[in-house]
Specification:
alpha+beta, Fusion Protein Consisting Of Minor Coat Protein, Glycine Rich Linker, Tola, And A His Tag, Chain: A, Domain 2, 3-stranded antiparallel β-sheet, 4 helices, 3 strands, 42% helix, 17% strand
Length: 146
């Protein structure tokens, strides 16, 4: 009977060890080494308010980080869609601050952390649908068929 209990305990112990050592390695976020990756990580964290709470709008925030990826100072909203209501603006400001809270500190590499520490990033979050760009036609671009 002791042998029946020891096998499940071994499996349990192995699972705990795997989670403690193998699982934690994959849970660590991959370090960010480029400015492009900073924007990609922030946009991956972005969750706009649902349409039932606010109409889609665009918002831009300026934020700086220290060398360890934590927010430095206070983020500042510098642009909001002009036709947005006060309720929409408030909902989007909250969503931006929640994004920054959820996503920081950013896991900068030592090199990137030293390079961007204290420098402002203007991060735009766009949720409005844009009309497709019309292709401009100019006389010298039109092919002649004669």
């Amino acid at each position: 009977m002791a042998t029946l209990r020891s096998k499940p305990n071994r499996w349990f112990a192995a699972a705990v060890l795997w989670l403690a050592f193998g699982g934690s390695a994959s849970a660590q976020p991959q370090q960010i080494d480029t400015i492009k990756d900073v924007f990609a990580r922030l946009h991956a964290c972005w969750k706009p308010p649902p349409v039932s709470r606010a109409d889609p709008m665009d918002i831009t925030v300026i934020v700086s980080f220290n060398r360890t990826g934590a927010i430095l100072g206070q983020p500042k909203v510098t642009y909001e869609s002009e036709k947005a209501s006060d309720n929409d603006r408030l909902a989007y400001r909250i969503a931006v601050m929640e994004t920054l809270q959820r996503c920081t500190p950013l896991p900068f590499t030592e090199g990137l952390g030293g390079a961007v520490a204290g420098r402002p990033f203007a991060v735009s979050f766009r949720t409005r649908k844009r009309p497709p760009k019309t292709e401009e036609k100019r006389a010298w671009l039109i092919q002649k068929t004669s």
